[in-house]
Write a structure and sequence with these properties.
By secondary structure, this protein is mostly helical. It has a domain of 46 residues. Helices cover 31% and strands 0% of the residues. It has two helices and no strands.
Length: 68
């Protein structure tokens, strides 16, 4: 993201730079279109959780507005 351009758009609002680490992200897409994405997301999160090692670092995020 171009932080300076973003700040200019919002009237030269302040920019906070917070250092941190980035971690690899695995992206998984549904093979079919689902009508109830909340229910499907919960079911998928449970499947991922049950099939993953318990490292304490995993979490599930859904972005229904993501367009590739």
């Amino acid at each position: 993201m171009d932080a300076e351009r973003f700040a200019q758009f919002f009237g030269d609002c302040p920019i906070f730079r917070i250092p941190g680490r980035t971690f690899p992200v695995d992206t998984q897409f549904s093979k079919t279109t689902v009508m109830d994405y909340v229910d499907a997301s919960v079911k998928q999160a449970i499947q991922v959780h049950l099939g993953s090692p318990t490292d304490g670092k995993s979490f599930f995020v859904i972005d229904i507005w993501y367009h590739n």
